[in-house]
Amino acid sequence: MVRLCRVDQAIDQEELIQDLIYFNPFLNWSKGDLKFAFWRNGHGKRYRDAILNVTPRIYGILMQQKKLQLCMQTTRITSFSRFIQCGKCLKFGHTLKNCLDPDGPFCGWCAGDHLTADCEKLGSSRCHNCEVLNKNLKYSSRYRTDHDATTQDCPVLKRALKAIERSTLRDPEKS
User: Fold this and answer.
1) Spans of all domains in the chain
2) Residue 48 backbone dihedrals phi, psi, to 5 degrees
3) Which of 4, 39, 61, 69 has its Cβ near the most Cβ atoms within 10 Å?
């Protein structure tokens, strides 16, 4: 997914897609290369960000290009991920504000029964998510738990990221 930064509020999603294709012909767009996902607010009343699903070919070009022409403006492009981890239960796909998990809170650093922001332990870390996964594994090998629940090395976090990656729009030529 990619984020088009600071798109004028007056542009709707249909016009956005048409303008991107028309004003950026060097991308050699094919049907299915580009799909509008959603708007994201955050730049006052006049601008918002557009989140788009794109094929891997287009994604690679856009990450090198870093900017696109959009009618009378140039817009910056960044990578966008739907990855969200709750600060209360440490599960994925929702935030602390929307957490409905009756258990917890759990600390992302020490796996204690408090929020990560309230942790007072300075010693070694322990991963709550890997501890839970290990309890549910019957015959498989166990995962190490000597890391925090938000590190890129966490096996549970890696699985969540791979699931998100699999759910993104695929290149139709390679399917």
Assistant:
1) 2-79, 96-167
2) -150, 170
3) 4
Using an 8 Å Cβ cutoff, are 150 and 108 in contact?
A: yes
pLDDT digits (tens, 9 = 90+) for 113-129: 999 888 888 777 899 99
Contacts of 44 (CB under 8 A, 6+ apart): none
Q: Which residue carries 């007072």 as its tokens?
A: 120
* Rounded CA Rg of the chain: 20
Give whole-number Cα distances, 172 to 33, 34, 35, 58, 169, in Å.
Answer: 8, 11, 13, 12, 9
Specify the CATH number for 2-79; select among 3.30.70, 2.40.50, 3.30.1370, 1.20.120.
3.30.70
**SS3 state at 148:** coil
What global pTM score does this model have?
0.57
How far is the C-alpha of 38 from the C-alpha of 129, rounded, in Å?
Answer: 30
